[in-house]
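Please fill in the sequence for the structure shown.

STRUCTURE ENCODING:
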């Protein structure tokens, strides 16, 4: 059995995977704040999943962790995970010392890319695919890329950080300091800025208003769809992935989201023979609601390193 843990800003999810790729029930718990609390959260998750699976922690083949921030996958060190209160944490070594099991640590979006690729393979949807990208639409926007079953990290670990590619020189200032980045129009934070609301979930409020025919909401929603379609074009034109799988918190918007993005890509193809020839809309998919992509990918990362 191999264990995968997705440590998020508010919730941590964990699963166990057997040698045939079958998954245990998912365990979810609140994530602690700060380095020591994050370590304790991971330790608790390991013990809970091991107990659920009926095995001792020491009998686990490996443990994989997916976590936000800048992750050195070779050492298991995590830096700048600001939404966890972590500036610099030697997470991998701390867990090895506490648990006595091989531990690997990966950025959560990159781990989720591995999880999404596993899902496509298991369901048969990946037949004929040599590569795929996982497009994470959450508070921000980023992607993970898998080519021939191998995660693409790049020379400095930033492969897939397409949210910080500027597409509008007159656009809003991005959190990265640039202006008009993809993330400023295609993310949860972008929707919250463009559609102010008292609703705890601004994206839900926007889509509800658009569904009711509100002209302003429809305009903001269309701008969002165009931003996501720009991210899809960037991924396909730079890496020629066979599939782009949309995940992250905004993927819960479901059918209206995927239909809107495909429509935006279709309109672009109508005026460009080049875009029409590469069938962008057909390459876009959405992760099933509730699938723990980052936890599954973390378990697979443990296989790679374990």
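FILLED IN BY: designer on duty
SEQUENCE:
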């Amino acid at each position: 059995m191999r264990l995968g843990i997705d440590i998020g800003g508010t919730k941590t999810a964990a699963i166990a995977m057997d040698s045939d790729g079958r998954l245990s029930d998912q365990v979810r718990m609140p994530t602690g704040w700060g380095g020591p609390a994050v370590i304790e959260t991971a330790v608790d998750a390991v013990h809970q999943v091991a107990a659920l699976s009926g095995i001792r922690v020491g009998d686990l083949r490996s443990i994989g962790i997916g976590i936000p921030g800048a992750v050195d996958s070779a050492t298991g060190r995590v830096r700048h995970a600001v939404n966890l209160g972590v500036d610099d944490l030697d997470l991998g070594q701390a867990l090895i010392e506490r648990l006595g099991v091989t531990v690997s640590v990966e950025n959560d979006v990159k781990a989720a890319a591995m999880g999404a690729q596993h899902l496509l393979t298991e369901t048969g949807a990946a037949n004929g695919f040599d590569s795929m990208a996982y497009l994470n639409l959450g508070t921000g926007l980023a992607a993970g890329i898998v080519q021939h079953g191998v995660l693409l990290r790049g020379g400095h670990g930033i492969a897939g950080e397409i949210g910080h590619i500027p597409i509008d020189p007159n656009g809003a200032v991005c959190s990265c300091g640039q202006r008009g980045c993809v993330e400023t129009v295609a993310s949860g934070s972008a929707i919250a800025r463009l559609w102010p609301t008292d609703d705890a979930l601004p994206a839900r409020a926007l889509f509800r208003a658009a569904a009711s025919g509100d002209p302003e909401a429809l305009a903001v929603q269309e701008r969002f769809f165009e931003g996501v379609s720009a991210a899809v074009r960037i991924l396909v034109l730079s890496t020629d992935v066979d599939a782009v799988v949309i995940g992250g918190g905004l993927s819960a918007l479901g059918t209206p989201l995927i239909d809107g993005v495909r429509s935006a890509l279709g309109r672009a193809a109508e005026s460009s023979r080049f875009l029409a020839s590469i069938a962008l809309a057909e390459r876009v998919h959405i992760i099933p609601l509730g699938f723990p992509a980052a936890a599954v990918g973390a378990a697979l990362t443990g296989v790679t390193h374990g």
